[in-house]
Write a structure and sequence with these properties.
5 helices, globular, two-stranded antiparallel sheet, single chain, Dihydrofolate Reductase, subunit A
Length: about 170
């Protein structure tokens, strides 16, 4: 059975995207030494990437080439994608997608990007673990790590570690 994982950076005030829709606050930490927790190391163990429409649109609008050619990519959306930036599949039914992912045994699944889809998986008990990289920036506005839906949970802390440049890695079992 595939493990469904979160791996995400958030500002100290709990934002994943700034109020102007930018990740510039995060890009200035690109040279941070994450050692064995580095994104490229994490990505090597991922077979399937799941993202919502907002995350897909953000990536599709970037000038960089499609970074996920080595993984199966699924975009959860009810709207047509038009001309996809890279090879991907589209799903509309989250419950059916979770069943499909759980039946898979060919590697881990990464919930890439926004908190809305991650929260939908958390509410359904379908996110197994999450790594949150808390970046020492206060943005004051923007998209929250977890949207306020009224859902409550008590994840189990597996580890907490100071990394580099004031970043802290929090690893939870959901």
């Amino acid at each position: 059975m595939a493990r469904i994982l979160g791996y995400i950076a958030a500002s100290l005030d709990g934002r994943i995207v700034s109020g102007d829709g930018s990740l510039e606050w995060l890009y200035k930490y690109d040279d941070m030494n994450l050692a064995e927790h580095d994104y490229r190391v994490f990505l090597k163990r991922i077979r399937t990437i799941v993202m919502g429409r907002g995350t897909y649109d953000f990536i599709a609008n970037e000038q960089s080439p499609w970074a996920y050619s080595d993984q199966r990519v699924i975009v959860v959306t009810s709207r047509p994608l038009g001309n996809p930036k890279g090879p991907l599949e589209v799903r509309t039914d989250i419950d059916a997608l979770i069943s499909e992912l759980r039946a898979s045994d060919d590697g881990d699944v990464w919930m890439l990007g926004g908190g809305q889809l991650q929260m939908a998986f958390i509410e359904r008990g379908a996110l197994d673990e999450i790594e949150i990289y808390v970046i020492p920036e206060i943005l004051g506005s923007g998209q929250p790590l977890f949207p306020l839906t009224g859902f409550r949970a008590s994840p189990t802390l597996l580890s907490a570690k100071a990394i580099d440049k004031g970043c802290v890695r929090l690893h939870y079992k959901m």
